[in-house]
């Protein structure tokens, strides 16, 4: 266990995210089998005009949906370990992850991060990615504390993310010809990751792909 994961383990308890039994992976074998019933046989991979590929592990329904809502809105950061384990169990996904120059979590506004205590996407990555230097959580910044996308309809969501994100530390973080994996927890309309992808394209990234836990 590396130093960062050791610190995280001290802050967040090693419990199964479903049955609350002690488990260092955040999910016990029995509950993992239960969750796999929701998984699509093939990991969903498709192209979009704003990014090259989207990989999603689960449909946004059932217990996956319930746990993502708890994780984001009920201050249960320990569930990050469970989601990270579900990603790490997918050898195909982990092989893809290892091929990128940078992995960027979708940022949240500083006010929301203070309220929640963590960026849900970044925390999952910290448990998932072995090469921590690949995680670039300081390139994109959410400059406007907009309404939660989950509270809006399809048309409102598209307008809600316009000009919300910006680039920070441009001089220190040169993305010219770099391959980027953009990570978020949920993909619904895709407006959030499209907005972020377009910014990364403008900064010269050569390939932008998207990974999410679930797709609605």
Helix-strand topology string: HHEEHHHEHHEHEEHE
Number of helices: 9
Number of strands: 7
Overall pLDDT confidence: 86
Q: Tags for this entry?
A:
216 residues, alpha/beta, Rossmann fold, 5-stranded mixed β-sheet, two-stranded antiparallel sheet, 9 helices, globular
Structure description:
There is one protein chain. By secondary structure, the chain is of the alpha/beta class. The chain has a single domain (38-215), classed as Rossmann fold (3-Layer(aba) Sandwich), CATH 3.40.50. It contains nine helices and seven strands. The strands form two sheets. The protein has a five-stranded mixed beta sheet with strand order 1-2-7-6-3. Strands 4-5 form a two-stranded antiparallel ribbon.
Summary of the model, kept short:
The chain is α/β, with parallel strands linked by helices and 216 residues long. The protein has helices at residues 3-11, 29-36, 62-73, 79-88, 91-97, 110-116, 120-128, 154-160, 191-202, and strands at residues 44-46, 53-59, 102-105, 140-142, 165-167, 179-187, 207-215. Strand 6 (179-187), helix 9 (191-202) and strand 7 form a beta-alpha-beta unit.
């Amino acid at each position: 266990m590396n130093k960062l994961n050791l610190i995280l383990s001290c802050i967040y308890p090693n419990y199964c995210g479903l049955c609350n039994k002690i488990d260092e992976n955040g999910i016990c074998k029995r509950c993992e089998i239960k969750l796999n019933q929701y998984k699509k046989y093939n990991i969903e991979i498709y192209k979009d005009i704003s990014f090259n590929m989207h990989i999603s592990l689960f449909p946004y329904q059932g217990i996956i949906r319930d746990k993502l809502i708890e994780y984001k809105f009920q201050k249960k950061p320990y569930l990050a370990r469970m989601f990270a384990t579900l990603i790490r169990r997918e050898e195909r996904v982990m092989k893809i992850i290892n091929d990128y120059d940078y992995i960027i979590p979708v940022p949240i506004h500083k006010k929301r991060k203070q309220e929640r205590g963590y960026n849900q996407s970044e925390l999952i990555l910290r448990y998932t990615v072995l090469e921590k230097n690949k995680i670039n959580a300081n390139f994109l910044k959410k400059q406007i504390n907009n309404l939660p996308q989950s509270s809006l309809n399809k048309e409102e969501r598209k307008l809600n993310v316009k000009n919300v994100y910006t680039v920070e530390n441009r001089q220190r973080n040169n993305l010219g010809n770099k391959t980027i994996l953009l990570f978020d927890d949920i993909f619904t309309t895709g407006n959030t990751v499209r907005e972020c992808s377009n910014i990364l394209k403008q900064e010269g990234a050569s390939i932008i792909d998207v990974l999410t836990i679930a797709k609605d």
